C-alpha cells in the first residue's frame, strides 16, 4: 500500500512537468507565421510593389505617408510571428517597451513611410532587450487591427508582444 501514494506522487509530478510543454506546443500550433504581404488584403495586393509599397510619384513637393491599403480584419486577435526591423519609440538604454516594426531597414526614417498596413506598432510590457533590435528579428505576439498615430507614421496594426526571436530565413 505504501507504493500507491508514491506512484500517485510520481504521476502528479510528471504531469505537472509536462503541462507547460504541452501548453507551449499548443500555442506554437496556433502560431500564424506571416510575411508582410499577408497584411495586405488580397484584392489590394496589385496596388503594391514587391517591397509592399504603393507606387510613389517623386516629382511633387513633400511626400506624405500613403493611406492606401486597408487591414485584414480576419487577422485580429491572432497569435502571429513576423520578421521585421525595429524603430524604437519608448524605453531606456537597456529595454524598449514600444517600437514600430517595419518590413525593411530605414522605413519611417526616410520619407515617405510605408502605408499603415505595412507598419506594426509593438508594445512589450516587460520590455525587449535593446541589443537584439538592430538586425532583422521575429516578433511573436497577439496581432490587433488597430490604428495608432505616432510622430513617425500611422500604423494599421498593433502587436502585444510575447517574445522576440532571432531571425532565420529558413
UniProtKB/TrEMBL annotation:
One Pfam family for this entry, by name? DUF3299
**Which InterPro entries would you find in this protein's record?**
DUF3299
Q: Does the keyword Signal apply?
A: yes
Keywords from the UniProt entry: Signal
What residue stretch is flagged as signal peptide? Answer: 1-25
* Protein's name in the database: DUF3299 domain-containing protein
